[in-house]
Specification:
Length: 230
């Protein structure tokens, strides 16, 4: 019985992966022709310099993971025109929304990738290339069985650190205590430098996304981490 359940699980997993790959292929062939800021990993040669996606020379390369509708990505690009910004998003709907927002804004230094972030980083992105990585209120995957899906699970965090420059930093903001606890456990296990804060009132310097504005109204507590690649 257990063997049959396992086989069924593996088949379902394979079909989910095939559906995701097919959606990326369709996007690669059609949608991105209209949304010039939208890419899939199929649009680039693996390990290429992502800064070359910006049509003019830039000094830095920054990644934002899980960009949602792209409002924070657009804000970053507008405030820092000499930096190339790469945003990743797993939802096709939100990837298209973010790309449309970037394209309408006229920002040429922001680029949206419809992809699963860890796979994208592992297979298509060279090591030691990002100056900074932003993770703003990601899916916390709060159930114990989904531990390995959490973006700061120790193995995922190792991959993020590998893609950072030696002086690079990761900045994470979450309202979920489970993800905050996982992050703390990971940085301690890796013995790397970090700073963490807990906020009942976020500093004015932090950009308020739609999600943050929603949960601020409920009095939610937020946790921030600045993780150094050392």
């Amino acid at each position: 019985m257990k063997t049959l359940k396992y086989i069924k699980y593996r088949i379902q997993t394979l079909f989910r992966l095939l559906r995701k790959r097919f959606a990326q292929y369709v996007l690669h062939k059609n949608t991105h022709k209209k949304l010039l800021a939208l890419f899939t990993p199929m649009d680039i040669h693996p390990k290429n310099d992502l800064k070359k996606l910006t049509p003019y020379p830039t000094q830095k390369l920054v990644l934002e993971i899980g960009i949602g509708n792209g409002e924070h990505l657009e804000y970053l690009a507008r405030q820092n025109p000499q930096t190339t910004f790469i945003g990743t998003e797993l939802s096709k709907l939100y990837a298209e929304k973010a790309a449309r927002r970037v394209q309408i804004s006229g920002m040429k230094n922001a680029h949206v990738f419809y992809t699963e972030t860890i796979r994208f980083l592992t297979e298509d992105v060279r090591n030691h290339c990002f100056d900074k990585i932003f993770i703003i209120c990601p899916d916390p995957w709060p159930k114990k069985k989904h531990l390995k899906h959490r973006i700061t699970y120790i193995q995922n965090l190792k991959i993020l650190l590998k893609k950072l420059k030696p002086t690079g930093r990761i900045w994470l903001l979450t309202d979920n205590p489970v993800l905050a606890e996982t992050t703390l456990e990971s940085v301690k296990a890796l013995d790397i430098s970090y700073k963490t804060n807990t906020y009942t009132d976020l500093p004015i310097s932090i950009f308020r996304t739609k999600y943050i504005r929603k949960w601020e109204k409920t009095g939610s507590r937020f946790y921030s981490f600045e993780i150094k690649n050392s």
